[in-house]
């Protein structure tokens, strides 16, 4: 469901670049226009009348990135900052919307109004606070009338197993996808409190409060619940070998499931002592148990997306959650940590913009 869908673009010819696809790299021209689609790809394309030509000689031409998890919400100023995402090569974001006491449809209306300020295409995952009759009815309205086809279920926010079963089953019946934020909320809260008493906060606390056994348990439980209802599901964030093993087992059993890895994980597990930016100290030794998982989730085909988890500064809801990266840097994270290392290519790519 794209907020900018239907906007007619002028013709644009990208000339002489190296077009990179999942199968090959070819030096060809790309003609774009219409509703934003690629109209033609090939060598030495003719230049249509009134077409803008961009010389891409010596440059890579790749599809725009999709950031599948931001948390902007109904924030016009936050959507205005998506210009930063565009500058970093991200052309689509899938935002997570928390209704915060409003009905699902009222929350969507406020979000839709704010999203008009976006500089990129946008879609939404509606976070579901409970499995009440009002929420279930609201899901039906969003799918049928608003084009929303994805819902966010958060164990971290206290959704019970019973609620997840009911919501995942209802979403599947509507033809919608669920994304489950897999976390053992009680164990994580206990560990975070212990770490805070010891003076350990920030990014390192995020990892230490969700050690491999805790993440694996939550991931396995999320997959089990979705499997009971036969619901397709995306689970994450995944960052440990135990969680990857749960994903692999579910896929081998025919379950429709994928995981997502937060973009900063790719960076921090490769260069754990390098700050993301001045004033933000990344976790150091805490990253070491996560390195093998990074390779396993990528090479096993269980990972398809790397979200930034970005939210606008000052959002009280996300205070203390330090595992996000600047929205402009998501592509650099995913490329340097996820794709370039797959090809054995680090070097200059292994640095922040």
Task: Provide the descriptors you would attach to this structure in a database record.
12 helices, eight-stranded parallel sheet, five-stranded mixed sheet, disordered C terminus, alpha/beta, globular, 353 residues
Polypeptide structure, described:
This protein has helices spanning 76-80, 82-87, 104-115, 133-146, 161-174, 185-197, 203-208, 212-228, 241-252, 263-270, 291-299, 330-340, and strands at residues 9-20, 25-34, 37-42, 52-55, 60-61, 65-70, 90-97, 121-127, 150-154, 177-181, 233-236, 257-260, 303-305. With 353 residues, it is of the alpha/beta class. α3 links the parallel β7 and β8 (121-127). Mean pLDDT is 79; it is low at 1-6, 269-293, 319-323 and 340-353.
Calculate the terminal CA-CA distance, rounded to whole Å: 30 Å
Number of DSSP helical runs: 12
Tell me what portion of residues adopts beta-strand conformation. 15-25%
The main sheet comes to: 8 strands, parallel
> Helicity range of the residues?
25-40%
Instruction: Categorize the overall geometry.
Output: globular
Residue stretches low in confidence (pLDDT < 50, at least 5 long) are 1-6, 269-293, 319-323, 340-353
Q: Which strand order do you get reading across the main beta sheet?
A: 6-7-8-9-10-11-12-13
Which secondary-structure class do the elements indicate?
A: alpha/beta
* SSE order: EEEEEEHHEHEHEHEHHHEHEHHEH
Question: What is the CA-based Rg, rounded?
Answer: 21 Å
The strand count comes to: 13
What value does the average pLDDT take? 79
Produce a short descriptive summary:
The chain is α/β, with parallel strands linked by helices and about 350 residues long. It is built from twelve helices and 13 strands.
